[in-house]
Specification:
Blueprint lengths: L2 H20 L13 H22 L3 H12 L5 H6 L14 E6 L2 E6 L4 H13 L15 H10 L8 H11 L11
Antiparallel strand pairs: 1-2
Helix pairs in contact: 2-3, 2-5, 3-7, 6-7
Length: about 180
């Protein structure tokens, strides 16, 4: 390994340690840090949509909000800003609009929506429509911990800390209150 590559590798390791140590696990956006106010504003904007989706599809509003916050960096991510995609759903089995995001291993096609509400609706249909998520719908609507762990177990995300991150968001921002809310 050359000295330049070794230095770059060490910098990457140091950055990963700093991110892990400071709890910046939710900062997916490249356009700057997401603040607590960003999270609160996002929740205030989208909790009615999440509650509506819960009533329609029987997915806890807390889970919907936590996933949307995490996947979209509270609406600040490239996919949310450029494609109204708040859940990072890829183009698989999709005939609609697309947005391309470049990753280190190449370009990836993601679903693009006309507005954020369409993204929430598609996310709900995505979970309801796939057999490997069926077991989640036997859980209580207020059991967000089992839902979070179940999503991870069913393969929704590759991040080994995905369930922990969802639960942390739900508890930190009291998203569980929306699971019993009536609009």
């Amino acid at each position: 390994m050359t000295a330049t590559r070794k230095t770059l590798h060490i910098r990457q390791i140091v950055l990963a340690v700093i991110i892990a140590a400071t709890g910046c696990q939710f900062a997916h956006a490249k356009s700057g840090a997401v603040t607590r106010d960003d999270y609160r504003q996002y929740i205030a904007t989208y909790y009615p949509t999440a509650v509506s989706q819960q009533k329609k599809y029987k997915i806890p509003a807390s889970i919907i909000l936590a996933q949307a916050i995490l996947e979209s960096s509270a609406g600040k991510s490239y996919l949310a800003l450029g494609g109204n995609n708040h859940f990072g759903i890829k183009c698989n089995d999709w005939n609609g609009l697309c947005i391309i995001k470049n990753h280190e291993n190449g370009s990836v096609c993601y679903r693009k929506y006309l507005d954020a509400v369409d993204s929430f609706e598609d996310h709900s249909r995505f979970l309801v429509g796939r057999t490997h998520y069926r077991q989640l719908f036997t859980l209580k609507i207020t059991d967000y911990k089992s839902w979070a762990n179940g999503l991870k177990k069913c393969g929704y995300a590759t991040d080994p800390q995905y369930a922990t991150k969802l639960i942390s968001l739900i508890e930190q921002y009291k998203l569980y209150q929306y699971d019993t809310m009536k609009l």
